[in-house]
Design a protein that fits this description.
Blueprint (H helix, E strand, L loop, with lengths): L6 H6 L8 H37 L11 H30 L6 H35 L1 H30 L1
Helix pairs in contact: 2-3, 2-4, 3-4, 4-5
């Protein structure tokens, strides 16, 4: 290890012509948070695109006409949820293009966090409804209800309950 101060320490060491130590630490953490969030979105968005693409081509299949009216409504709700999720999850990228160069990282980070969390709501619904649609079509209504309930519980636990419990425990 070197005894030389890090870049953040050097910047913080001259308060007259640079940021204060707390400001440097905050900027560093803010940059890390922003980078992590953008990486998370890079993982989420292709998955939503694949799901939405699957739902997009479904009505053009000749078997789609044979779906019961209730199944068509489930399909439509899943499709609209997928599209809504895609719009919300890609909103930070669109916003970033408008705000370049990014002057207020904290505000953008807050916006992107909100859009991501809000976008997970319709994505959750799209995943549950798509599960229902596929399971009912392949295994029947009773089995579909059981499988869909299991997916809904797993999704609620892993995406919503567990993280919120962790957040509450940290406070």
């Amino acid at each position: 290890m070197s005894d030389e101060p890090s870049v953040d320490q050097r910047t913080a060491a001259s308060p007259t012509d640079g940021p204060t130590p707390s400001r440097v630490i905050w900027q560093s953490q803010d940059q890390v948070d922003l980078t992590e969030m953008l990486q998370e979105l890079r993982v989420l968005i292709p998955g939503v695109q694949v799901l939405t693409g699957f739902l997009l081509i479904l009505p053009f299949d000749h078997e789609f006409r044979n779906l019961a009216l209730a199944e068509k409504w489930v399909y439509l709700a899943a499709f609209v949820s997928g599209i809504t999720s895609l719009i919300l999850l890609s909103a930070p990228a669109a916003q970033l293009r408008f705000e370049r160069p990014l002057r207020d990282r904290a505000h953008f980070n807050e916006f992107a966090t909100r859009m991501t969390i809000i976008g997970l709501i319709p994505l959750s619904l799209a995943l549950i409804l798509t599960t229902q649609l596929i399971a009912e079509r392949t295994l029947g209504a009773t089995t579909a209800i059981i499988i869909t309930a299991c997916v809904a519980v797993l999704l609620a636990a892993v995406w919503w309950v567990w993280p919120l419990m962790g957040l509450r425990a940290r406070r």
